[in-house]
Specification:
six-stranded mixed sheet, alpha/beta, about 325 residues, four-stranded parallel sheet, Rossmann fold, globular, about 40% helix, single chain
């Protein structure tokens, strides 16, 4: 991948994982992670004429796709590593704590106070030490960097690292096996690790489309500005998709593949979450159903005879919320 620039003019050089890197990561992880299932939902139930397959990555270890990249990164750490540090809205933190438990090393996770208490609890349940910081993900990330100065720990970035992207590519590798006939794969996009890995794994085979909440539009803003820029983040999916700046890997992949992110509203995300529970008894977190919201809202035009795969990426929530169990309007 050649050099590109940020919107501020800084040159960025990102080495994207090659196909061999993705296959090697999947081979390493295959005995340790789950091959998550694909479930078909009648297009009519979602208000579209085509065929929709749900890739249920919320059934992965720790309740989200994050387990793949976190474990791949931890397993690739130098011999003798005794600790890892990460910043996370919650899902990545739980995944890093879980992975560090497998490797027998310490995990210190910095989490924004805006994350649900259940996500903090899960980090601790996996043996990690949670440090709660006021603000959103960017504040937790800054705090993690300050804390790690002078300490013998390895930082595990939530989305913008080649090892994270290569681990997440397992989602795309499995989709390629489970639904080779699909025309498109829609994935939730926050910092872009899941999008990058899935898109690289399926490059030249199946189009991969990133979907963002309107209130966390880091990739859309980068495409418009001509490079990654900081954006304000908020809304119902901010705890999992609230990266204030798109990762350089994701921006490079989107540029190379000409991807145009789709945007969905908070109301559309919550409607998708309700329907997924009512129709399938699958309970996802708001960020996890962002791609499904694009199908239901019409942001993703699903045509008659077309098969679309929708990645449902996470399910870490404390209880069945009232907004989910409220009846779906017909």
């Amino acid at each position: 991948m050649g050099a590109a620039r940020t919107a501020e003019g800084r040159i960025m050089t990102v080495r994207l994982p090659e196909h061999e890197d993705l296959e090697a990561a999947y081979t390493l992880l295959r005995p340790l992670v789950r091959r998550t299932p694909v479930m078909e939902v009648a297009g009519g139930d979602l208000g579209v004429p085509g065929r929709v397959l749900l890739k249920l990555e919320l059934m992965q270890h720790t309740g989200s796709f994050k387990a793949r990249g976190a474990l791949h990164t931890v397993l690739r750490m130098p011999e003798g590593t005794t600790g890892a540090v990460a910043a996370s809205g919650g899902n990545h933190g739980a995944a890093v704590a879980w992975a560090c438990g497998i490797a027998g090393i310490a995990a210190d996770i910095f989490v924004p106070a805006t994350s649900p208490a259940e996500k903090v609890r899960r980090i601790e349940a996996y043996g990690g030490t949670a440090h709660v910081v006021d603000g959103y993900y960017s504040a937790a990330y800054d705090a993690s960097r300050r804390w790690s100065e002078g300490r013998d720990v390895v930082a595990v970035h939530a989305y913008d690292a080649a090892s994270i992207v290569a681990g997440a590519a397992g989602v795309g590798i499995e989709v390629g096996d489970q639904a080779p006939f699909a025309r498109r794969v829609l994935v939730p996009c926050g910092g872009g690790g899941l999008y990058s890995g899935t898109a690289l794994a399926l490059r030249e085979r199946i189009q991969v489309v990133p979907v963002e909440p309107e209130r966390c539009p880091s990739l859309a803003a980068a495409v418009e500005a001509g490079g990654p820029v900081d954006v304000d983040v908020s809304g119902v999916a901010a705890d999992s998709l609230g990266a204030a700046r798109i990762g350089e890997h994701a921006y490079a992949v989107a540029g190379a593949l000409g991807a145009a992110p789709l945007l969905v509203s908070d109301d559309q995300i919550l409607a998708a979450r309700r329907l997924l529970w009512e129709e399938c008894r699958v309970l996802a977190e708001p960020g996890g159903v962002t791609a499904l919201a694009a199908v239901m809202s019409g942001a993703a035009d699903v045509r008659d005879g077309e098969t679309v795969v929708v990645v449902v990426s996470g399910a870490n929530h404390p209880t069945i919320p009232e907004d989910v169990v409220a009846p779906v309007s017909r």
